[in-house]
Amino acid sequence: MSETTVPTHLQYTAEHEWIDSASPATIGITATAADALGDIVYLELPEVGAEIDAGAVIGEIESTKSVSELFSPVAGTVVEVNQEAVDDPGLVNSDPYGAGWLLRVEVTTTGTLLSAEEYAALAEG
Predict the structure, then answer these.
(1) What's the DSSP call for residue 85?
(2) Spatial separation of the C-alpha atoms in residues 106 and 78, rounded to whole Å
(3) Can you list the alpha helix ranges (DSSP code H) found in the chain?
(4) Quick one: pLDDT at residue 5?
(5) 70 CB contacts (<8 Å, ≥6 apart)?
(6) pLDDT in tens, 56-102
(7) Contacts of 22 by beta carbon, 8 Å cutoff, 6+ apart
């Protein structure tokens, strides 16, 4: 596991995204994913107003090592995109659970979510 512990107040996906329980819900990638990607240099995120589906690809995250797809943990409508992270993708590396969040969604349904304990076990596995 990375030097960052898995925050217990969030839920997770097997694809290394996190989501909080607020309304609208905030979505980001985990520290484990950020560490694995290395230096993040580009984010492609859906536009405000976009309808997204749980489990569907909603964008891309590009690092100096690779390009990875972002998957939505929920279905709903994108209500906000973190423009600061788009302008400075390194925020995702430096603060994946804070300033490096990716988008906020008005949730209609959730996909398969993991608890912090389940995610930590998956990430360590």
Answers:
(1) H
(2) 6
(3) 31-37, 83-87, 90-94, 116-124
(4) 83
(5) 17, 29, 45, 57, 58, 59, 60, 61, 102
(6) 999 999 999 999 999 999 999 999 999 999 999 999 999 999 999 99
(7) none
Q: State both tokens at 94.
A: 């430096």
Decide if 75 contacts 52 (C-beta within 8 A). Answer: yes
Q: What is the edge-to-edge ordering of all strands in the sheet holding 17-19?
A: 11-12, 17-19, 25-29, 103-110, 74-81, 51-52
Distances (CA, A) of 37 to 3, 7, 93: 15, 20, 9
Of residues 18, 23, 15, the one with CA closest to residue 7: 18
Cα(25)–Cα(66) distance, rounded to whole angstroms?
Answer: 27
Residue 106 β-bridge partners: 77
Report pTM. 0.94
For residue 3, pLDDT over 80 is answered with: no
How far apart, in whole angstroms, are the C-alpha atoms of residue 6 and residue 66?
A: 24
